[in-house]
Amino acid sequence: MRLAFQWIMSFLYVVQNAVVMAAMGIVFFPWALVSPKGASTACNAYATWAIWSARWMVGIRSEIRGEVPTEAVLVPAKHQSFLDIMMIYKAVPQPRFIMKYELLFTPIIGIYAWRLGCVPVRRGKRGAAIKSMLADVESGRVPPGQLVIYPQGTRVRAGEYTPYKVGPYVLYKETGQAAVPVATNAGLFWPKGTMLRKPGLAVVEFLDRIEPGEDQKAFMSQLEEVIETRSNALMREAGFEPDAVD
Question: Would the keyword Acyltransferase be found if you checked this record's keyword annotation (predicted)?
Fold first, then answer.
């Protein structure tokens, strides 16, 4: 009975969330079209609503831990869920996301991504993608802020492992900025590939920064170790054992 109720509330949450996203996207669209401020205000309003309504509709509480960066830094983050995107967006003052190129052609969303200063990357073209990403960052088209990149290149189910890609190191080296890794357990409560939302405490944790100057091997090793170790610890804290997943 409890699971059936959770499914019903999850369905209602997903529906109302989609309606609110569409409504806000349309209402703010003229402002977003002419000003980045309009885009950021719309996205902030939507993220606030989605996180708040998740708490009372499906029981997902949210918590930010660690020292949130306010200066221009690279933010390599564990990505398990759309929820961790919204939590990071709400936490940092000037978020800029590395995102899939295809999203630029999504109605309304593409305009918002462009106006926010997100960096589109084509999948499957590693060398060209990195060059394009660097060109966007170095050209000044992307305003200074917290540049969020997902080291595994995609959303990863809680407890599963996907190899880390070299993109974060390239940006770390070329920009000369510190990197602030981010761990999360959000995928336990807002899972990939299902409408079911599960109650619990979703955490996004900003970890100790990696200062500029590390070589590729040291940087990538440290990045993966701290993100995976801390994300696994957060999942265990929520009662999930990542080592039990095949």
Answer: yes
